[in-house]
Design brief:
This protein has eight helices and seven strands, in the order αααβαβαβαβαβαββ. It is of the alpha/beta class. Bound molecules: S-adenosylmethionine.
Length: about 220
């Protein structure tokens, strides 16, 4: 498998513009960021769908938001949420350097506050990417499902919990058990939701991709 990963890495083209350097710099600094294969897959989805309103939960230092800005249209708007000043200060400076401050709106708050506030405004998004604390996906899902417009795409990153997700709770280290339980419940709920067509892809640490379609489940 390591051989295959190395071979595939060799085939991969660099990300466009400043994104390749941004990704390398973030990985080298040991800061959290989506993996290259997830970045490549999301850029393909965005190129296909060209969403107008993108929402991200978990901005980090802003790499994925910058990727979304690159692979959407000039009129598209990206809204991204993060609660840690350490991350938001770096994200703001990265957006400024890349000339993306007008296209990306950064909400500096806990998603537990920001998501219900967005629901109250009746906002709808046609692409939502969730990449925050994995134990919180379950709690945020009711808000996400309201914010996702018909025909919209939803992706959740890192759902494999480094492989723990497949293990029985007793075999998961005690400190990861709440996340394990919440993540499993979240996955069961989304996969069973008839308003969605969902797949789980073994890229990065596992990516859930769901399409909300008006027509799904109505036949
Ligand atoms: C994996 S990092 C995001 C990486 C980013 N998506 C990227 O690829 O460039 C996760 C981020 O989620 C943020 N986060 C975790 N829980 C949060 C919450 N409840 N509300 C807002 N942000 C949260 C953390 O501060 C962290 O910056």
């Amino acid at each position: 498998m390591a051989e295959l990963a190395q071979f595939l890495d060799g085939l991969r083209r660099d990300l466009p513009g400043n994104l390749a350097e941004f990704h390398r710099r973030t990985v080298d600094a040991g800061l959290p960021v989506i993996s290259r294969d997830v970045a490549d897959f999301l850029s393909l989805l965005l190129t296909l769908r060209r969403p107008q309103n993108v929402l991200e939960i978990g901005c980090g230092v802003g790499f994925s938001a910058a990727l979304f800005a690159e692979f959407t249209t000039e009129s598209s708007k990206i809204t991204t949420i993060d609660r840690y000043e350490f991350m938001t200060s770096r994200a703001k400076s990265n957006f400024e350097k890349l000339g993306l401050s007008a296209k990306i709106r950064l909400i500096e708050d806990d998603a537990a506050n920001a998501l219900p506030a967005l629901v109250k405004t009746d906002a709808k998004f046609d692409f939502i990417f969730m990449d925050c604390g994995k134990g919180q996906y379950l709690r945020f899902w009711p808000h996400i499902s309201r914010l996702l417009g018909a025909g919209g795409l939803f992706c959740a990153d890192d759902i494999f919990q480094g492989g723990n997700i497949a293990r029985a709770a007793a075999d998961v280290p005690r400190r990861h058990r709440t996340t394990h339980r919440n993540l499993r419940e979240f996955l069961h709920m989304v996969m069973a939701d008839k308003a969605l067509k969902s797949v789980i892809l073994p890229i990065g640490d596992g990516l859930l991709v769901s399409l909300k379609e008006d027509t799904i489940g109505q036949d």
